[in-house]
Amino acid sequence: MPTGRVLVADDDAAIRTVLNQALSRAGYEVRSTGNAATLWRWVSQGEGDLVITDVVMPDENAFDFLPRIKKLRPDLPVIVMSAQNTFMTAIRASERGAYEYLPKPFDLKELITIVGRALAEPKEIASKVPQPEEMESIPLVGRSPAMQEIYRLLARLMQTDLTVMITGESGTGKELVARALHDYGKRRSGTFVAINMAAIPRDLIESELFGHEKGAFTGANSRSAGRFEQAEGGTLFLDEIGDMPMEAQTRLLRVLQQGEYTTVGGRTAIKTDVRIIAATNKDLRILIQQGLFREDLFFRLNVVPLRLPPLRERTEDIPDLIHHFFVVAEREGLPAKQIEKAALDRLKRYRWPGNVRELENLARRLAALYPQETITAAVIDGELAQPAANAPSDEPRVDENLSAAVERHLTRYFGGFNDGLPPPGLYHRVLREVEHPLLSAALVATRGNQIRAAELLGVNRNTLRKKIRDLDIRVIRTSS
């Protein structure tokens, strides 16, 4: 039976009652209060083995008294709750020394698990974390369950140098997350350097990454510093890592293993101290099967995998996002805009193939082109119904069925090998590519309910669970 004394602080009496009952049933001794002053008195008197507190208290904000608690009793774990549910809330909780951040509403079983883990860990003096300067703008927007998981993971990663692999569709904000990891992390005083592998000619990638010496190749008239050298002491963001050619992958792997590199044409090894964050919109496991990506490099980069959900999996964030983009557009000199509820409903029903980037572009277009202050549903209908200008002939048609779309995709895929053939194992690779979006779409449609999704798909529930595990599909439960 677990033991420990838990101090609970929340000005909502109903929440205190629920927490008291849940913690008591779990075997903990509980004292609760509705104000920060009483909580501080208990802590200063040496009471409690763990604190659970809301951020907004009637007499003081938790972020103001949390540093005092950590200074007086650095081994006392503090769990912070908040209904604000923003990226900055999670970051402030982490940087002020909170053991864990929980967005409201939260699962009581999860809370009990966190309490047990916190009390079971050995006590040690926490190192002092520097306080960040207040930022003028919030880098990440959204309060959906999917984004809350992202915020909590980012908060845990801020004070580490772990390599992170960010996956997600184009337009989901992979570079934004990478910049947040740098700007709010321990390397914030260093340089953030981004390089897009897909935008650099294959024969220049090694020179871009590692630099070159004068005379290393035709046109190298002087020494040039590479991105590793530019990012020394900071963060190197390798975007579209799936497009890196195999030769460069081999050199990158050597750098990650040995912590040093040589410039193109150079002979002296150079020590490097950078944090690596990689990103891709491709399935690297499929590229590994196709012989296009090194498996050992994948494991070196995939230390902490972080999947950014597409906008269609977090439609509840659209009101916050569109408001944020309107505010940004207004700061840039465009007219202020509001949007009616019916228009928001239209936005939530759209599939957003371009994700958050597409929504941001729409917001700027609405602010620039429409004279009315309030954007109506009719305006949104007109914008979303417009076909893309000069669409390429190989783009999918609206009336195209799945079979035709797959055939068109495979024709283009085979064409990429010219007179050759793709690597063996094509049948299973194609099935995997189809299975992942099919299962994901079914889980999104059923709001993460695996029983309903299995029924919708016509498969056994255990089969669905195995597929979710094998395909590494993230399941987000949302309320209707």
Number of domains: 4
Number of helices: 20
Rg result? 26 Å
**Class of the largest domain in CATH?**
Alpha Beta
Mean model confidence by pLDDT:
85
Give the CATH topology of the largest domain.
Rossmann fold
Overall SS class: alpha/beta
Give the % helix. Answer: 40-55%
Major beta sheet, strand line-up: 2-1-3-4-5
Beta-strand percentage range: 5-15%
Shape: globular
CATH-level-2 architecture of the largest domain: 3-Layer(aba) Sandwich
How far the N terminus sits from the C terminus, by CA atoms, comes to 37 Å
Q: Report the uncertain regions.
A: 124-137, 388-394
Q: How many strand segments?
A: 14
Q: Please, what is the CATH homologous superfamily of the largest domain?
A: P-loop containing nucleotide triphosphate hydrolases
Largest sheet: 5 strands, parallel
What does this entry show, briefly?
This is DNA-binding transcriptional regulator NtrC. The protein is of the alpha/beta class and 480 residues long. It has 20 helices and 14 strands.
What does this structure look like?
The protein folds into four domains: 116 residues, Response regulator (Rossmann fold); 148 residues, P-loop containing nucleotide triphosphate hydrolases (Rossmann fold), CATH 3.40.50.300; 75 residues, Helicase, Ruva Protein, domain 3; 64 residues, Homeodomain-like (Arc Repressor Mutant, subunit A, Orthogonal Bundle), CATH 1.10.10. It has 480 residues and is of the alpha/beta class. Helices cover 44% and strands 12% of the residues. Strand 4, helix 4 and strand 5 form a beta-alpha-beta unit. It comes from Rhodoplanes roseus. It is found in: Cytoplasm.
